[in-house]
UniProtKB/TrEMBL annotation:
Gene Ontology MF annotations: heme binding; iron ion binding; monooxygenase activity; oxidoreductase activity, acting on paired donors, with incorporation or reduction of molecular oxygen
Reported cofactor(s): heme
Protein name from the UniProt record: Ferulate 5-hydroxylase
PROSITE patterns reported for this sequence: CYTOCHROME_P450
Pfam families per UniProt: p450 (PF00067)
InterPro entries per record: CYP450_84A, Cyt_P450, Cyt_P450_CS, Cyt_P450_E_grp-I, Cyt_P450_sf
Length: 512
């Protein structure tokens, strides 16, 4: 018996040390987690709030915000999700604690299709991302890069001619505008608008579907073997199709470089610009000399091109279509915009770039369109570490959705927020969309704001100005403006649920 007690003595001593230590660790853990999660609907065990997946749209989250406030918490399987629907909370996330919230979340599909975040849009914040953004701002979207801006002017001219050839007939304006923005981005990226564009559009459409597809493995990783939609096969086929398409274009550009047949700097396309930084191995440092600070692999180049195509096509097309739709629905505002165009430009010539500064009400109209219909309604961020916002606990790797759509309709920030009223922006001290007014952030704010904003705005300005100056528009079949369908469809963007169809009549007296 004495021997047994003697043998058990070390065990008792260990328990005496371990038990208090466990209590201490538990206390420390509870102390660290003393802040509660933001309010939100209660979830079920394991799946959490996954039964509410259909409510994770800009409209669904705005409705939940009315019940739970400007910062709400949802648990999707293993994933914590936060939705921000007020300017005050957006400022905390995008400005005050921008360093913590500067990462982008990526689903399994996005990670795979962007070559494991080899792009700029989904790369984590750090040296690589900073140099990639510098590359985009200084090279790809620079005003010095004549080809991108010239492609906008040329393609708008083509669009005007297409409309002019259909005077008096119903025109599918939505399809016309999508073709416009696709041609602009395709030409800026690849240098032409006819080489394989139909095939590339098909690839883009499949990518878009895969980006938005529900994959249970994103939320409960140990259920990754469940693949009812065959997503894994579709992902492999989609990336294979992209590889085949863009590899051919890259090889053609590389051959031209080898033959010293590179166009001058003003007329290069984006592939040319990116190949100037090409290397078999990626390299990055924080040098101010961009040429010597970053090297891009083929995967980087392909992923960046995809960013440009997604970011520059649907977003700009949606904004142009919404601007025309809102003006057709509001005849008084349409009349005021067109009168301004007649006064400033006259009907004897087309709108020119130098006219934009004088087109005050047109600018107000476009701002009001972006307020009600931001190009990307939900801005996605991810926390790099644990954070505290408004007295609540936000765990590391939480997905944070900034609801730019809801913020633009915030009743505490805007009078009659649901009403299209461009004249509101004629007042002094109204918010601007450059990123420092958090009640109006259609292009985001802070480190992850849109690097292609200026080129996108140029396309928006030029297209809308020409469509309104050159033509008057009527709805077909005697439809009244009040009967227009103003519903949208949630995705990467929030375009109209039905394409805008209208009948043009020539308005200017100059040749089109």
């Amino acid at each position: 018996m004495d021997i047994l007690l003697q043998n058990l003595q070390p065990l008792f001593l260990a328990l005496l040390l371990i038990v208090p230590l466990l209590f201490l660790l538990g206390f420390v853990f509870r102390f660290r987690r003393r802040l509660p999660y933001p309010p939100g609907p209660k979830g079920l065990p394991i799946v959490g709030n996954m039964l509410m997946m259909d409510q994770l749209t800009h409209r669904g989250l705005a409705k939940l915000a009315k019940e739970y406030g400007g910062l709400l918490h949802l648990k999707m399987g293993n994933l914590h999700m936060m939705a921000v629907s007020s300017p005050e909370i957006a400022r905390q996330v995008l400005q005050v604690q921008d360093n913590i919230f500067s990462n982008r979340p990526a689903t399994i599909a996005i990670s795979y299709l962007t070559y494991d975040r080899a792009d700029m849009a989904f790369a984590h914040y750090g040296p690589f991302w900073r140099q990639m953004r510098k590359l985009c701002v200084m090279k790809l979207f620079s005003r010095k890069r004549a080809e991108s801006w010239e492609s906008v002017r040329d393609e708008v001219d083509c669009m005007v001619k297409t409309v002019a050839a259909n005077i008096g007939k119903p025109v599918n304006v939505g399809e016309l505008i999508f073709t416009l923005t696709m041609n602009i981005t395709y030409r800026a990226a690849f240098g032409s608008t006819n080489q394989g564009q139909a095939e590339f559009i098909r690839i883009l459409q499949e990518f878009s579907k895969l980006f938005g597809a529900f994959n249970i493995a994103d939320f409960i990783p140990w259920l990754s073997w469940i693949d009812p939609q065959g997503l894994n096969t579709r992902l492999a086929e989609a990336r294979k199709a992209l590889d085949k398409f863009i590899d051919l274009i890259i090889d053609e550009h590389m051959q031209k470089r080898a033959d010293n047949n590179v166009p001058d700097e003003a007329n290069t396309d984006m592939v040319d610009d990116l190949l100037a930084f090409y290397s078999d191995e990626a390299k990055v440092n924080e040098s101010d000399d961009l040429q010597n600070s970053i090297r891009l692999t083929r995967d980087n180049i392909k992923a960046i091109i995809m960013d440009v195509m997604f970011g520059g096509t649907e977003t700009v097309a949606s904004a142009i279509e919404w601007a025309l739709t809102e003006l057709i629905k509001s005849p008084e505002d349409m009349k005021r915009v067109q009168q301004e165009l007649a006064d400033v430009v006259g009907l004897e010539r087309r709108v020119e770039e130098g006219d934009f500064e004088k087109l005050t009400f047109l600018k107000c109209t476009l701002k009001e369109t972006l307020r009600l219909h931001p190009p990307i309604p939900l801005l996605l961020h991810e926390t790099a570490e644990d954070a505290e916002v408004a007295g609540y606990y936000i765990p590391k790797k939480s997905r944070v959705m900034i609801n730019a759509w809801a913020i633009g309709r915030d009743r505490n920030s805007w009078e009659e927020p649901e009403t299209f009223r461009p004249a509101r922006f004629l007042k002094e001290s109204m918010p601007d969309f450059k990123g420092s007014n958090f009640e109006f952030i259609p292009f985001g704010s802070g480190r992850r704001s849109c690097p292609g904003m200026q080129l996108g705005l140029y396309a928006l300005d030029l297209a809308v100005a020409h469509l309104l100056h050159c033509f008057t528009w009527e709805l077909p079949d005697g439809m009244k403006p009040s009967e227009l369908d103003m519903n949208d469809v949630f995705g990467l963007t929030a375009p109209r649920a039905t394409r805008l169809v209208a009948i043009p009549t020539k308005r200017v007296v100059c040749q089109l």
